[in-house]
Structures are given as structure tokens and as C-alpha cells.
Amino acid sequence: MRLGAHAETVFEWLALKLNLGPKPLADTQAAFQFARIIMAASRAGLFEALQHGGRTAQEIADSRNTDPRATGKALDALLAHGYLRYRNGRYELNRLSRKWLLADSPHTVVHKLDFQEIEWRWTEGFDQWLYDGAARDMHRALTPEEWRRYQWGMRDFSTAPATEVAWRARLPKAARTLLDIGGSHGFYAVQLCRRHPGLQATILELPEAIPTAAEILAREGMGDRVSHVAGDALADDLGHETYDAVLIANLIHHFNAEQNLRLAQKVTRALKPSGVFMVMDAIRITSPAEANRPDRRLGAVLDVYFALTSTSGTWSVEAVQNWQMAAGLRPSRPVWLKTMPGAALISAVRPTE
């Protein structure tokens, strides 16, 4: 997935191709300003105001207690970039906004947009990080309310890839037990259990995360098959030949190489023979020669983000498979996700001998 300016006309294509237009401004000024427009509109409930039909800007402003003039300008910006449609003098939701920007949609990203206000503040540290390279480990500074916003945001972020992972992951036949390490909201475990009717899942999560995570999980109505247990995967024993499958989704970017290797070794011990260890995460480039590959671009950006906000960064497929092999597992070919471009599901099986 390529970020930034994209040509929509022949003239725009030529301008980009011939380096006539200032692409850095399209990648920065236009991008960050429109991002804040979407976030502000979502937080103010402008999309929710259109849930049951079209309205004028004045009607939307009246219903959300916003300024009519400012509301109209924001609606026009959203309209210009394909987030709304306009018919008979009224703004309406389109397929994009109805799917992603209503809080009660099963595909909603409203909570993730809310958490991005916190992430926005974090990224102000890029300037100093470029000089000192020091990670800020922002997660340790979250207040209880910010933890809540974080977990709801991660739930929204996981909706599409969790469904794809559930369909494309290859679990052992008749798999019965799944350990989801750091699974928080539990949506990956939920979707895997829905895909495999005989599966029961345990989510290992830090104690401070469980209250909100359990609240989010309760909405799925899977309490008889998916449950939380408090613990720390880096410090706690995971058991011996207990699970048919172990999943770590969007977590290894918080750990360094030594921690990820030790975790893979713990997972191997916890797996039954023929059990599968699944790692899902954004993938970084292994060298500058890979920088132009479409399936590496997101991972390259997130590598910088996690190096600032955590203590590590994204990892390459080769790095993950090396940990798996060093732990005694047999890696499979990675599965590149379509719903989260730049991310892959990297599985490995514990041999029977």
C-alpha cells in the first residue's frame, strides 16, 4: 500500500512522473489536515447524524451542537474526498462512511480514530527520536482512560484482519485449545473460534488491560468459549504441551530479538505435537533493496513508529522464521493479508518427533 499523493488525471500523473508538483506537500500538509478533519468529524458525530437519512449542514449542526459554518466546510471537505455524497440539497452517507464510520457498524473504526488523537501527540516525538534514537515506551504512560481508548481502538483496527486470519490460518485438524498471547479485546480468538466450532480460546493479557478487554469481549457473546487470564508472556510459564495453537497478533513489534526468541521457545514447549504457532504483524523491509515492494511499505512506516513508541519495531519474515526454527518449529510459507496490506501471518508447526 502506497501512502500519499496519487494521480487521478493524466495531467496529475505527468506532474508526478516529471516531478513538477511538490509531492512532499501532498504527503504532509494535505494528508495531516484531512486526517484531522476525519477525526474531528467522527468525534463530533457528524457521520452518526446522517445514519437515518440525508440532512442539510444546518440540520447536522443543530443535531450535534456544532457551528453551522464550520460544519458545512467540514462536510464539503469530506464530500470532496469520497466520504459522503450530496443529493437534493442534503448530505448523505455513502458505502464507505456507512461501513467504517458508524459506531454500531460491525466494521467500525470510530474508536481507532478516537485513539489516534493520543497517537498524534506521540508522533510529535519523531524529531527528538531522530537525534537520540531513544524509545519513549508510550504505553507505560497511558492513563486508565487512555488505556480504555487504546483497547477499543485496537478492537476496531483488528476487525478486518482478524476475519481474514480466521479463514486463512491452518490449524491442526480437530484443534481444541488456542492461546492468544496479548490478545486484549479477543477478536482474533473470537473469529478463530467461530471458524472452528470445537475450539476454546484463552487470552493471556496483562492484569491492567483485562477490565476493558473483558467488556469488549462480552459484546461478542462468546464467553463460554473465549476467556481472559491475567499474566505476562515474557515472565510466566505457558505450560507444557497444552495448546493446539498459539497466536501472537500485533505484539512482537513491542519486543526485541532476544525476547521474541525466548517467547518462541516458550510457545514451542506449550504446543502439542503438530501444534501451530501463528505470528501476525506488519512486516519491515530487510534491506533498502526491498523498499519499493508494495507489501513492505506499511511495515517500513510502522517500524519507525514502534521504534519511537515502544522499545523495538516491526520485524522481517526471515527474523520471525529464524526464531521459530531456533525454537524447534518448522515454518510454513507466510500468508500476506489482503485486508491489512503490509502485514503477514507467519506460521510454524511443532514436529511430532
- What portion of the residues fall into strands of 2 or more residues? 15-25%
CATH class descriptor of the largest domain? Alpha Beta
CATH architecture of the largest domain: 3-Layer(aba) Sandwich
How many helix segments?
Answer: 13
> Measured on Cα atoms, how large is the radius of gyration?
22 Å
Count of distinct structural domains:
2
The CATH homologous superfamily of the largest domain is termed Vaccinia Virus protein VP39
Number of strands: 10
- Fraction of residues in helices? 40-55%
Low-confidence stretches: none
Structural summary, described in words:
This protein has 13 helices and 10 strands. It is an alpha/beta fold and 353 residues long. Helix 2 crosses helix 6 (110-122). A hairpin with a 2-residue loop joins strand 1 (84-87) and strand 2 (90-93). It starts with 9 loop residues before the first helix and ends with a strand. The chain has 2 domains: 10-103, Arc Repressor Mutant, subunit A, CATH 1.10.10.10; 138-349, Rossmann fold, CATH 3.40.50.
